[in-house]
Each structure stands twice: as C-alpha cells, then as structure tokens.
Write a structure and sequence with these properties.
By secondary structure, this protein is mainly alpha-helical. The chain has 18 helices and seven strands. It has helices spanning 9-22, 31-39, 78-83, 101-104, 121-133, 148-151, 158-170, 181-184, 208-220, 224-241, 248-262, 268-271, 276-285, 298-312, 323-335, 352-363, 388-409, 419-430, and strands at 43-44, 50-54, 58-62, 69-71, 85-86, 175-177, 200-202. A five-stranded antiparallel beta sheet has the order 4-3-2-1-5. Strand 2 (50-54) and strand 3 form a beta hairpin. The longest helix is centred in the last third of the chain and has 22 residues, at 388-409. 44% of the residues are buried.
Length: 447
Amino acid sequence: MTAVRHWDGFDAIERDVRALVADPRWATLPPIARAEAVTSRVLATPDGGRWLFGAHGRWYREDPADGRWHLTAPPADPNLRAGARVARAPSLVPPQLVPSIHDLNADRGSVQGFVGPDVPYEITERLRDLVISQRGRRVADFPLTGPFTEFFAGEVPSPVAAIWGTLMWCAYAPAFDGNEVLLSMFGEFLARPLPGDEWVRWLPPASLADLVALYGERVRAGHPEAGLRLVGLMADTAATIRYDARFRPRANALLAMVDPLLRRTGPDPSVAHYGDDAVRQAWLSRCPPNVTLPDASPGEHFQHAVYDLVGTLGFLVPKGAEPRAVAASLLAADLSAFGPRAADPLYPWLDPELRHILHVVLSDPTHPLRGCWPRSGRLPSALNPPDRAGAAALLGAAYALGLAWCKLTGTPVPERGFTTAAAVVHRLSHERDDPVPGTSGTFPRHF
C-alpha cells in the first residue's frame, strides 16, 4: 500500500511560492502585483498565527499587536502545520519581504562547527601552500594592523594575517577542534595560545573591517599594488575554502565583493583615501543580496542565527518538544552568565513569542524550560543530537548565535565558549562515535 501523506500547509505554500518566483514572468510583474501574490498565500494556523514565506527564502510571522512581520522559524508541531490554511492578510505584505529569485536560490552552506567533521585534506594542503608562500614577505612592506596584532608575533607580515582573517571571516562558526590541521599551520606565527581549552578553540570572528584595514593601510601608505596583492591573497583563500560548505556562502560573497578591485574596474584605490569605512561600504554594496552579514546589520544577522539554531533542533519534535521554545531556553542559558540585563538589547529583534519565552525563562528560576539548560557542562540527555553530524550542527549554530548577540550588544566573546556550545562539545570530543547514553530520553509533558 502507498503511504498516505498528510497535508502540511507550510510545505505546500513554500513549494508554491518557490515555483511562482522561479517563473521567468515573476521578475516582469509590477512590485504591487508581486506583493499581492505573496499576500494571497499567507497562512493562518489554528493558534491564530499568520505566516508568510518570503525574502531570504524564509518564514515570517505577523505580530497581531502591530501588524509587523518577524523572521521566525516555522512551527514544528505537526498539528499546527496540518491545520494551516491560506487566509489572505488584511493588508499587503511589505515590499522588502517579497522574495526574488536570488532569495530562493540562496546557498546557506552548513551551520556545522569545525569540531567533528575535519576540514578536507585537499583544502588544508592548498592553504598550507598559500601560507608557506608568504613566509619571506618583509614586515616593512606588509605591516600588521588592527586586531591582528593581538594574535600574531611582531615579525609576522600582513599576508599571513590576510589568510587567517579570511578564514575567520568566512567561517559560519569558528569553533575548531584543538587538533584541527587548519589551525596548526599558523602555530609558528602566533604571539599567544588561541582562546579555548584542551578540546576546542573558541575563536572570535574577523570583521570585514579587519580585512579592509589591511588593504586600506597599504593604499594610504603609497603602495596600492601591495594592497592589491593582499586582496588577491584573500580571494585565493576564499576560492580554496569555498569547497567546504561551512565556508562557502561567505567565501563566495567575499569573492563577489573584491572582484571589481582585482579586475581594476572598481573605485577602491581612490575610495581608500577617504578611510576604511568607505572601502567597507563599497565592498558591502557588492555583496550578493541573498547573503546576510553581521558587518551589514548585526540585528538581522542575530535573527537569522536564531532561525538557524531552531533548525538544528528539529530532532526534538518526535520527543514532544517545540524547537523554538528550546532554542529560546538555550539562548537564555548562555545569557544568564552575563548578568540580568544582558538580554535587554536583544528583545526588540525577537518575535513576540520568543521574546516572551526568553524573558520568563531568565526571570523564573523554577521555569520548566530551564530543564533544557546544560548541567555540569553537559546537555540534558534528551537534547543530545542523534549523530555526530547533528551535534556538529548544534555546536555551530549555538556558537554562531553567541557570536551574533555579542556583536549586537558589544559583549566580548568569552574565551572558553558559551554554555550551550561548550556542552555540545562533550558529545563530540568525549564520546566520538559511541552511542550516547540517554539519547532516548524524552521531555516532561510541560515542556
């Protein structure tokens, strides 16, 4: 017998919108016609929620209080999804939420951290060749600038930092196994041990401003060709690491941003004399529209990081847990270590439901969702992902979310990681491929 497939309103509307936008006629429609088409496909769920599938190829939920739409991972409850029905919104959806073909073709790469799956050998060897080729550079010709001076010894030339900075900027979540070959090749250049512990290096991300500064300094010093060589090295690094899905989206974005400069068709050499921020804005203006970056909008980047974390918790649905609620609880666990007001700048960027959950979990020590919090450095057994790939994804998404809210709030990144990400490491570093005790655990009913 053929299995009966149950109706899922979210899957159905997503397929419909994707097909609509992929039609060549979509781009020729007037903006109001495109907005009307999306508005006519708004979903209503039995709990009173309104949802639309739109920009960035992601879901948004309407706040009934003011009609604003918030980037929100869709519900995991099969009953809510099965009960969803088309119910046209009372007003047109905002134009910025109407999807384009670029949104639906977005390459999201992988949210996995670099603990568990290693960087492929072919990539590390090509990068090793790049690093070795820069050993003979003179510091007088390529001086270090900015935050890189904290990581590298004084005699290290900036081309080495350009490779490192590109790696850290392109990585979705730069949490690396302490034995990762990709890091060890930089050991001879470091001024101090990398932050972390015996298992993981919890690395801070480089910013686009850090990379721009290497280029801008050389141009303003009267050596534009040296600046161009640094950018070329960033491009070579990005072109190498984009074959690893954890680097790919940002690596491709960086290549698009520097391409006019490398082809000598961009205004960057003259713009650089107006300061690094002018160059940074020029690079960001060339970023593919479907890529979201902390450098462009820390708040929006934080929203997408929350969305990603919810996605990695889908394995909890059969256990009776709601991934969105668990994600909010894990965020609360991380924030709890930073004081009672740490979450205040984040509330405006969360949808009303997550905002409420985060607030009550942080405020009420007896709240049942605190049962999701790690204890003694380990996740509750029911939160253990079923396999190493899932654990690497949870690690990466949790660490990326921590970096995102630190960027948004101006909080220094902790050198020993965040509570949630550090707890996931136990699953990856201590238990390897062995079965995880307690993974059959289930949540209490009130979860």
